[in-house]
Amino acid sequence: TGSAGVDLGTAVETTLMDSQVQCIATNVKGPLGYGLSALLLGRSSMTQKGLFVLPGVIDADFTGTISIMVWMPSPPVHIPTGTQIGQLVPFKAAVPLAEDCVRGDGGFGSTGRADIDLAMDISKAKPMERVTLKEPGGNTCKINMLVDTGADITIVS
User: Fold this and answer.
1) Which is it for strands 22-29 and 77-79: parallel, antiparallel or unpaired?
2) I need a labelling partner for 157 at 20 to 30 A (CA). Which of 72, 90, 94, 125 fits?
3) Is residue 101 one of the residues assigned to a domain?
4) Catalytic residue list contains 148
5) What is the top-level taxon of the source organism (predicted)?
6) Structural domain of residue 24, as residue ranges?
């Protein structure tokens, strides 16, 4: 009594060699039982050490192995098998108009389309475009500009 969550340990030994998000399997499989869903969160002791567990939701009808998404901004770091890096905080879902769909064991948004259509790393590719600026008086200026595919406005100085 008193604990809000159940600690989750890693099922495999893992070494994070870069700062990319990685998934680490646990020994826990769904469904959780009793119609419960859960938030998957990091343990504060891991966050304090610089290992970030990215939060997730485990649905009541998920039937696969629960994996933990982790991010380490300053690798490398070694995580031995059984290290408790995450925790499940169970709850009873009460979504009034929830879609009735079978989640199965897919995980990580397997029941819906990802809304990210284009992601471009402009720090490496540096897509450039030759642009002509025209003043109200008629003078023109041609400059090379870095293309930012997600910008709502453009500032030229």
Assistant:
1) unpaired
2) 125
3) no
4) yes
5) Eukaryota
6) 6-91
H or E, element range at 44 = helix 44-48
The domain that holds 23 is classified in CATH as 2.70.40.10
Q: Is the pLDDT of residue 36 over 50?
A: yes
Which has more confidence, 61 or 97?
61
Q: Which of 105, 121, 148, 152 is catalytic?
A: 148
Rounded CA separation 56/41 (Å):
7
Spatial contact of 153 and 146, defined as CB atoms under 8 Å apart: no
Q: How far apart are CA 153 and CA 157, in angstroms?
A: 13
CA distances from 93 to 38, 59, 104, 144 (A): 9, 9, 17, 52
Please say if the pLDDT value at position 48 is more than 90: yes
pTM above 0.90, yes or no: no
Work out the number of other CB atoms within 10 angstroms of the CB of residue 36. 16
Asked if the structure places residue 155 within a domain, the reply is no
The reported pLDDT for the residue numbered 98 is: 61
Residue 53 lies in a domain: yes
